[in-house]
Amino acid sequence: MQRVRRLHRNDERLIIHFDYDCFYASVVENENPALKSVPLAIQQKQIVVTCNYEARRRGLRKLQLITEAKKVCPDAVIVLGEDLTRFRDASKVLYNFLRESIWSGRAERLGFDEVWLDCSDMVDYNMGLLNRHDLAHSFFCLSKDDPTIGFEYDASNVFGPTFPSKGLLQLSEQDVGLRLRLVLGSHLARHLRHELESQKGYTATVGIATNKLLSKLVGNVNKPKNQTTIVPPYHPLGDVEATVTQFLDGHDIGKVPGIGFKLAHRIRGYVLGRDAAFSEGLVYGATKESVTVLDVRTYPGMGPDLLEEILGTTGAPRGIGGKIWELIHGIDDTEVGMAKRVPSQISQEDSYMKYLHTFDEVKKQLQLLGERLIRRMQMDLLEDEDEGEDTGSEPRRRWMAHPRTLRLTTRPRPPPGPDGVRARTFNRISRSAPMPNYVFNLNDPATALATRLVDEALVPMFRKLHHEKAGWNLSLINIAATNMAETAAESKDSAGRDIGRMFRRQDEVLKDFRITDEPDCVDDHPNYATAVVPQKSPEQIRSEAQGEVLVADGWDTEDSDREAWERCEFCQSIMPAYAFAAHRRFHELGG
Ligand code: DCP
Ligand code: MG
Ligand code: MG
Q: Which residues are in the UmuC domain (predicted)?
C-alpha cells in the first residue's frame, strides 16, 4: 500500500526537451552551407561521431569506423571534429536563445546538444487566456507585458505526432485538464522549433511531457526535425493502461535516463539470472538480449526493496532502489536547473589508446591538459570589471570564482594476469591537492602557468598516485579544478543572474586565445544522473579537503558513462572501454 502512495506522479509541470539533429554536422553545415546537400561525416579518432541526414540516407551511422564509412559512401565529406571549440560555442548560443525564449529561466543543458525547458508558467498563463467555446482560434501569448506578442493556434488539437499515435477519447476529468496543457505545450514547442530554425539555422527533435525523464525519452519517437507529445491517460482508467506505462514498458531498461550502464547491467543480470551477453556490434553497450522495463516491472517480487538489494552493492547511494522504481514508472521530480553563473567544476581529460610508458610522455600530456585547463578556467571564470563603461581601453578582468582544489585522475590498465590475459577494470584513481594561487595570475601566459603547475603540483601528485617509477599503462588522464568558491562581491543573486553576459564575455576571452588544435578532447559530456547522484563518504570529503589520496570506487562519479575508447589488439576495432571485457571474451571463444 505504501508503495502505491509513493508512486504519485506530479503532472503539474510542462517540460520540453530539445535534442539538436546531427549536432556537430549541423554546426559545420552552418559554417559552410554548401555542405548541407552532401553527405557529411564528423570524425574523432577513427570514428564517425556523427553525420548529417544525407549521409545517414546513404548508409552512414553514428559511431561507425571511418574505414567502414569510406567503403559505404566513398564520396562523403569528412571533417575533423576533435577541436570542440566551435561545438561548445554553438551550443552556448543555442542554449541562450532557448533560455531567453521562455519565462522561467529554467533551462538546463545536457552535454552540448540537449536542453530542457520548464514551460509550466507559460502554459499556466495561456490556459487562463483560453476561450473554452472556441479553442480552435486561440492565441498563445509570449509576453506578459505585451498581449499582442505571440501566435495563433488551434487549441483543440495537439500539434505534431503523439504517443500513442491515436489518443483515447474518453478521459478522466484530471486527464482532460492535463491533455489541454499538453496541447498548449505542443504548440509552444512547434513555435520554439520554428524560431530555432529560422533564426539560428538549427533543427531539433523535441519531446513534450510533464517531467524531464518523459520529455527526453518521447522526443526520440519521431526523428529528425519533429516533435512528440505523450498524451493522456497518464493514469490507468478502468482496463485502460496509462500511456506512460505503455510507453516505458517498451524500452530497454538501460535506455531509461538515470539508469546508467552499470545499474542496467546489474538489473539485467538479475532478471535473466545470468550475465547478459553483449552484442557483437558493441555500439554504446547495447546488449544482445533486451531486458525491458516491462520485464523488470513485472518480475516476481520486484519493487523498491528488491531493487535496493540488487543495486545496493554497486556502491550506489542508499535509496537507489526506490529511485529506480520511480524512474521505471515515469516519475521524475527533478527540477530543470537554473543557469549557473559559474560551473561547479572544470575539467580536461584525454584518453589514450597507446600506452603512456615514459615519464616524458606523461609529463607532456600533463602539460597539454594543464594548459587547456587554465585556458578554460580563464574563459569560464573571468568577468570584466566595470562593465558598461566604455573607456576604450582593455577592460580589467577579475575572477568570479576560485577553484580551491586541483584533482588529478588516471585510469590505469591493470597488468596481465598469470594467464597472460589482462583483467579489465575501469576504475579511476585520483588525488587532490589545494589549487596553487599562481594559476590565477593573468600577467603570465597560460603555457608558462601550466609548466609551473606541472612541475610544482601535477608531477608530485602523479608520483604519489603511481609509486612505480616507469611503465605506467594509463588509458586516461583527467585534470580538474573543483570546489569552486564564488567571489563574495559578485555572489549576490548570482544564480542565473546574467548568463548572457557571461557568454558574451567568454566569446571575448576566446578571441584573445589562439586556440591551437585540441586533439582527443572528450570533456563536456556530462551524464544525466537523476538517479545516481553519488554520495561521498565523510572520509572522502575529508581526505579531499586535506589533499589526501582518494581512491575512486567502482562507482564512477560525475564522469560515469562518459566513454573512453579502447582498441582491441586482435581485430583493431575500437569500442567504449566498458564493452571491452565482453569483446575480449568474444575472441576467447574463438570469435
Ligand atoms: N558525440 C560525441 N561522442 C559520442 C556521442 C556524441 O562526440 N560518443 C557528439 C556528436 C554529436 C553530439 O555529441 O553531434 C550529440 O550527440 P547525439 O547522440 O544527440 O547525436 P546527433 O545530434 O549528432 O544526432 P541525432 O540527430 O541522432 O541527435
Ligand atoms: Mg543528443
Ligand atoms: Mg542530437
A: 15-260
